[in-house]
User: Which sequence fits this backbone?
């Protein structure tokens, strides 16, 4: 069988940015994180070919290979794609190597959220605890977490913090918007600044300096 080695992690399509929020990140194991989707080019010297795989992690599922392509180093010598050729490819080992090459450490923030070391304070990944269902009271802890995310994003210069939270937590913008309205109503987040994203400063008391 062809033993894979030396994977090179790369973008799957033009415009993908593995180090940004254009491609999300998901937690892997106790301390790692990986892109939610990435490609890896893995050398198969025994076959004289390379294996290009797309690795995708979907909600509630383990990372898996969703696309695979064999590329011969020398087209004049390649045996062509046959069932025998594919049986010689160790996809399980290829997936393990791809994950090892793509993974990086993460800094856990609690509530299922994490950030990349050295990333701006408003950039985070992962998912919070299960979203409150309609008709079920939302506890202060959940709203406080959302409010903290919102303030961090505004401080970091985000022009669309509500949308950024929705993308990071994989919820709709309208759901996050309802949470923010409720957080403001409970005093966990300051009032909005007109129609702009932000939090109005607290009024100063008379006589205070």
Assistant:
């Amino acid at each position: 069988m062809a033993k894979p080695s030396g994977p090179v992690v790369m973008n799957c399509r033009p415009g993908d940015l593995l180090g940004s929020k254009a491609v999300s990140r998901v937690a892997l194991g106790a301390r790692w994180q990986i892109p939610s989707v990435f490609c890896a080019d893995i050398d198969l010297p025994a076959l004289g070919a390379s294996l290009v795989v797309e690795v995708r992690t979907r909600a509630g599922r383990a990372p898996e290979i969703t696309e695979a392509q064999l590329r011969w180093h020398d087209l004049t010598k390649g045996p062509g794609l046959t069932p025998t050729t594919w049986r010689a490819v160790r996809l399980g080992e290829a997936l393990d190597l791809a994950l090892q090459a793509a993974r990086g450490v993460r800094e856990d923030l609690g509530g299922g959220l994490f950030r990349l070391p050295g990333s701006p304070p408003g950039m985070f990944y992962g998912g919070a605890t299960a979203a409150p269902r309609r008709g079920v009271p939302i506890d202060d802890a959940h709203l406080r977490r959302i409010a903290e995310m919102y303030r961090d994003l505004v401080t970091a210069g985000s022009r669309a913090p509500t949308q950024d939270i929705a993308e990071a937590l994989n919820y709709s913008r309208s759901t996050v918007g309802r949470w923010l309205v409720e957080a403001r109503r409970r005093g966990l987040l300051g009032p909005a600044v007109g129609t702009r994203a932000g939090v109005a400063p607290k009024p100063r008391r008379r006589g205070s300096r």
Remarks:
- The longest helix spans residues 140-155.
- Strands lie at 5-10, 25-28, 32-35, 37-44, 49-56, 64-72, 104-105, 107-110, 113-115, 125-126.
- Helices lie at 83-87, 91-102, 140-155, 161-169, 173-185.
